[in-house]
């Protein structure tokens, strides 16, 4: 049931051939373009199954549309579009066993927490569900390179912080944060230390498991301690842990940022900052269960970019991560 189809039917990530340009090779901006990464391939929608999970699986397109309506960008010619990440590129982090597990629709259903996915042919799951994740994962890696070159970048997607090298979960199938950091370590001279600032409402246990014991990576994670995933093993990797309670408000939330973020930036002095900027902290989000206003979210983002980019001149790239209120755009 929902098992792997033949390789010919299944649009799984292809092997990178000799003529396939690397992700870093296509991450080249023209002077007029913004360091923003997005593709219409990010969005998920098929057979109404997207309604069975609280995640708004078309939110990435809505963000792009909002940027256009606000006059911030004219269209896709002002940004960069990623291609789909290949299997070989995923294997920089992911084990063969984990990637193979995604050829089972049952396993994918558990990762994305949508049980009906288990009964679908896997070629449909690959094409309609996992392929958008693979585009977003490539977008995160591209954003990392653009941040080094331009000082900042945004991937309108990504932030799959519950996925590690050998395990997915929480609607996260690929470890894009781990991949982006390791790509920078391997391909960009001068990037020796990276900081992950994870301000999604949930603990980022995926990248934490991947970087446990790695002194090149500093993780600042502020999350609701009373919700998923409660991964105590992964918490060992957090260098600065800020645990919140249900219904935390703007005042407490923002004061924690003002107290902790400048201190850890001064302490660790990173070469690059990955900012996982989930909006599931918003009041009314039934999974985050915090009470941050839209104004509080904007102030959060302003504080992060001010401390990292304006005050210290460090490159930063932002991922949109979680957010479970349909129609909310911040």
From TrEMBL:
<keyword id="KW-0156">Chromatin regulator</keyword>
<dbReference type="InterPro" id="IPR023801">
    <property type="entry name" value="His_deacetylse_dom"/>
</dbReference>
<dbReference type="InterPro" id="IPR000286">
    <property type="entry name" value="HDACs"/>
</dbReference>
<feature type="domain" description="Histone deacetylase">
    <location>
        <begin position="53"/>
        <end position="326"/>
    </location>
</feature>
<dbReference type="InterPro" id="IPR023696">
    <property type="entry name" value="Ureohydrolase_dom_sf"/>
</dbReference>
<comment type="function">
    <text>Responsible for the deacetylation of lysine residues on the N-terminal part of the core histones (H2A, H2B, H3 and H4). Histone deacetylation gives a tag for epigenetic repression and plays an important role in transcriptional regulation, cell cycle progression and developmental events. Histone deacetylases act via the formation of large multiprotein complexes.</text>
</comment>
<dbReference type="Pfam" id="PF00850">
    <property type="entry name" value="Hist_deacetyl"/>
</dbReference>
<comment type="subunit">
    <text>Interacts with HDAC6.</text>
</comment>
<keyword id="KW-0378">Hydrolase</keyword>
<dbReference type="GO" id="GO:0040029">
    <property type="term" value="P:epigenetic regulation of gene expression"/>
</dbReference>
<feature type="region of interest" description="Disordered">
    <location>
        <begin position="1"/>
        <end position="22"/>
    </location>
</feature>
<protein>
    <recommendedName>
        <fullName>Histone deacetylase 11</fullName>
        <ecNumber>3.5.1.98</ecNumber>
    </recommendedName>
</protein>
<dbReference type="GO" id="GO:0000118">
    <property type="term" value="C:histone deacetylase complex"/>
</dbReference>
<dbReference type="GO" id="GO:0141221">
    <property type="term" value="F:histone deacetylase activity, hydrolytic mechanism"/>
</dbReference>
<keyword id="KW-0805">Transcription regulation</keyword>
<dbReference type="InterPro" id="IPR037138">
    <property type="entry name" value="His_deacetylse_dom_sf"/>
</dbReference>
<keyword id="KW-0804">Transcription</keyword>
<keyword id="KW-0678">Repressor</keyword>
<comment type="similarity">
    <text>Belongs to the histone deacetylase family.</text>
</comment>
<keyword id="KW-0539">Nucleus</keyword>
<dbReference type="InterPro" id="IPR044150">
    <property type="entry name" value="HDAC_classIV"/>
</dbReference>
